[in-house]
Design a protein that fits this description.
Number of helices: 15
Distance between the termini: 5 Å
Helix content: 25-40%
Largest sheet: 7 strands, mixed
Oligomer: single chain
């Protein structure tokens, strides 16, 4: 059995895969084009402030626990978790918000106060969501997407109708309050598609939200990356940063090597956690599985305009996670998915980890992470970035009833061009391929190349889909698929 495995990229899926492959006895080397590991989950440090550049939500803690348990470890061996309470706040206008607590009983009370009778509807909705979550974890997301038969179990057959309804339809059957509807539809945005296009089965994200809660790893999401890297190194994985893979070589239909920074090295097996489309551009055309036409017809999750802002004072009227839904959700969604353009009046999200984690900002100061969802592949200029920063800062000041512009020490931005440059991201998308009905499970790009032996893929463009927990799962199922081949 061959032992030499090379992994392209060091995001969550690659880190997970590296651990599993090392445990199986393979010699594993991870090549990362940037100067630090983590893929899109990198870190920015500036003037005493610390920011997570990418993922900022820690949901589905059981997936992380299951990952570390596979190696006889616990998350607490590598990082410290705190459950957020409140979990997050959603603004609908000036001084007009709903707070989602970390306690489910308090969430029921909040619903009932907002709309009489809604708490009972929520209980039934969450029972279905919990059942779907357990079905997803046990029967679906840990499957490799090789065959449609993977989806056929007694449990999934009983829920087949939920794949032909949508989250939006199910939410609106009983709940009338537009504010509560927005809160219930919000979690599926992590799947990269509109609630009106997302199968109702994915309401399990609501259980992940209300039932399992929102957590914060001390030191930020990057502490999870550091923990996984440490585990990988304990298992014997080698990491090489500043290592840009420029070519994948194939001989007699089988992977034979890589070109990295101009140097050719021999490879027995290559697993790419880098952007799937980009990885195939590293192959000669005859070995590509998917055409440009294929990719262009797929529904991609949004890109993002991100700002990392240092404030010289503590802020008020905000929580660790704060959502600004004071504009038309549907209009913004249309401008992402149906008629791509810079949004007229974007929704946006902000987090302030220094409220929970004082070490992420100097004493008496605040760090702010702001995100505007965008359609991929838009024109990206400094002028546009500045325009939208001013737009959201104006709204932020008005909605939270405080002045902040004069308290900004610095701001850094990250947008479509950066996603392309830093991550070779297809059209500059931020989250991968959306989980729509026709892009679920076996209908997603395959983990194993159909044209090149010993070439595999992992991450958010393949199975099971976008998000941090699915990326950990993707690394595991790809590794298990590799093991079955008995190299």
């Amino acid at each position: 059995m061959s032992k030499n495995i090379h992994i392209i990229g060091s995001g969550f899926s690659s880190l997970a895969a590296s651990c599993y492959m090392a445990k199986m006895g393979y010699q594993v080397t991870v090549f990362e084009k940037n100067s630090t590991v983590g893929g899109r989950a990198r870190q920015l440090k500036k003037e005493g402030f610390t920011f997570d550049i990418g993922p900022s939500w820690y949901w589905m803690p059981g997936v992380f626990e299951r990952f570390f348990a596979d190696f006889g470890r616990k998350p607490s061996d590598y990082y410290e978790l705190e459950k957020l309470d409140p979990a997050y706040e959603v603004y609908f206008g000036k001084n007009d918000s709903l707070i989602v607590d970390g306690n489910l009983d308090d969430i029921y009370k909040m619903f009932e106060k907002e709309e009489t009778g809604s708490s009972e509807h929520l209980r039934k909705f969450l029972k279905s969501a919990k059942d779907n979550y357990e079905t997803a974890i046990e029967d679906l997301v840990y499957k490799p997407g090789v065959s449609p038969l993977e989806l056929v179990t007694p449990t999934t057959v009983a829920r087949v109708s939920q794949f032909f309804s949508t989250v939006s339809k199910e939410v609106r059957k009983k709940i009338k309050s537009q504010r509560l509807i927005k809160i219930l539809e919000f979690p599926v945005l992590f799947l990269g598609a509109k609630p009106s296009n997302t199968p109702a089965f994915y309401n399990f994200m609501n259980y992940a939200d209300f039932g399992l809660g929102t957590w914060h790893p001390k030191g930020g999401m990057y502490s999870v990356v550091e923990g996984m890297k440490k585990l990988a190194e304990e298992l014997g994985v080698h990491f090489q940063t500043n290592s840009d893979v420029e070519k994948i070589f194939v001989e007699n239909g089988k992977v034979s090597g890589l070109r990295i920074n101009g140097e050719n090295i021999a490879s027995d097996l290559v697993l790419s956690g880098a952007d799937y489309h980009h990885t195939e551009t590293l192959l000669d055309d005859t070995y590509k599985q998917y055409s440009e036409s294929y990719w262009s017809k797929k529904t991609f999750a949004p890109s993002s305009l991100l700002f990392y802002v240092g404030f010289d004072k503590k802020l008020k009227n905000v929580h660790h996670h704060t959502l600004f839904f004071d504009t038309d959700f549907e209009e913004h969604a249309v401008e992402i998915y149906d008629d791509p353009k810079w949004p007229t009046a974007p929704l946006f999200y902000a987090n302030f980890t220094s409220l929970t984690d004082p070490n992420s900002a100097p004493e008496g100061k605040e760090n702010g992470f702001f995100l505007i969802p965008l359609a991929p592949d838009l024109e990206d200029t400094e002028e546009l970035r500045n325009k939208y920063f001013e737009l959201i800062m104006d709204r932020f000041e008005k909605i939270t009833n405080q002045e902040v512009k004069n308290s900004i020490i610095f701001k850094e931005s990250f947008c479509v061009n950066d996603f392309k440059k830093e991550y070779n991201s297809y059209k500059g998308n931020a989250y991968g391929m959306a989980n729509t009905l026709l892009q679920t499970a076996f209908l997603r790009p395959k983990l194993k190349s159909k044209k090149v032996k010993n070439l595999y893929f992992t991450g958010q463009l393949t199975v099971p889909g976008p998000g941090v927990p699915p990326s950990l799962i993707s690394g595991k199922i790809t590794s298990e698929l590799i093991k079955k081949t008995r190299l």
